[in-house]
Amino acid sequence: MTRQRVVRRFERPDEVVVSGLADLGVATVYEAQAKTGLLPAEIRPIQSGASIAGPAATVLSAPGDNLMVHAAVETVEKGDILVIALTQPALHGMVGDLLATSLVAHGCVGLVTDSAVRDSAELVGMSFPVWARGVYSAGTTKSSPGSVNVPVTIGEVEIAPGDVIVADDDGVVVVARSGSAAVLEAGLSRVEKEYETRARLEAGELGVDFYGLRRVIDELGIVYLDDEPERGP
Fold this sequence. Notes:
Layout lengths: L14 H10 L1 H7 L11 E2 L6 E10 L5 H6 L8 E6 L10 H9 L4 E4 L2 E2 L2 H6 L4 E3 L1 E2 L11 E2 L3 E3 L2 E3 L4 E5 L2 E5 L4 H23 L4 H4 L2 H7 L14
Parallel strand pairs: 2-3, 3-4, 4-6, 5-7
Antiparallel strand pairs: 1-6, 2-8, 2-11, 9-10, 11-12
Helix pairs in contact: 1-6, 2-6
């Protein structure tokens, strides 16, 4: 069995690719990589309007224990996003304003956690964006072993250190570092097509015609009526 560990260094993706994925946003990146990598809907932003992307620095913690989050701080580099997964489901305030202050001082640009945070007003006030399962003031211990910068899983999505995290008001999507450049290319192509689609829709073309949906409607046996049929007595 592999021992629990703190890995100090890991390979990060190209900064240009990360910046490009940030510009695309969660929804486009998700579609561009064949509708994969989306974290559970329960992991939501605690603020509005934040949009970030960066390499994942990962933590695997015991429920209600943030010892390994503290251990992760010294491994964070400028631009990283801290990702906290748990060995068992639980809601605790895994990060508050003091721990967030420490993370920011070491270059962390945001947090994704499969648990909760507290001091939410302070976190929003210091412009430290967070995506979490909730806001909950339950405190944590600092006595249980875990690991830092190892592959973790949230929902059904595996996240390796150095994978790209893209997060905004639509949620969080994970892009494998090895495929991030290809996802960016696919996303840029999708945006180009959307420009044409938007122009045609703005000109009044109907989606049922543009997307060829009239055939689908017909095959489903749906009929069009000019007027609502009269109801019987």
